[in-house]
Amino acid sequence: MNTRNPKSTLAALALLLFSLTLPALAAPARCSTANAAGDWAYSYSGTILLPTGPVPVATVGRFTASANGTFSGTQTRSVGGDVGVETVVGTFHEKADCTVTYTANVYQGGVLQRTATLASVTSNNGRSGRGIFTSLVLADGTNLPNVITIESERIFPDQN
Prior knowledge:
- Helices cover 13% and strands 57% of the residues.
- The chain is mostly beta strands.
- It has one domain (34-154): Beta Barrel (Lipocalin), CATH 2.40.128.
- An 8-stranded antiparallel beta barrel has the order 1-2-3-4-5-6-7-8.
- The longest helix is centred in the N-terminal third of the chain and has 21 residues, at 6-26.
């Protein structure tokens, strides 16, 4: 004969289920703006779609991201074969789901050239990322349609 009390069985089951959720509730998010802080290398390539025809673009650079959501760095870019060195300054926000939004202001010789926004995803346990430009606007407000993708990687993977 089974003498178990249904209420005590239900209570034990509820306690077990609750205890299984505690590690998930207690674990900090792996992806966050603060966790993205550090030194990063990146490259992007793609095409700017001008009325006169497509123009290839490629860049290689590095930036330092701060835990407060700002970043700055330098890049060497080629737009249709015209090479230049630029400074990049901006903001970013990384969510717990590892999606990141960036706004980057690009300067050459201290003069704003363009502003880009990007959507990205951090991967490889916070060591790398990939993204796409969502807008590219010249300093005079001209929108440049584009198809540009970016790949990034921590310079020192053990930083975070």
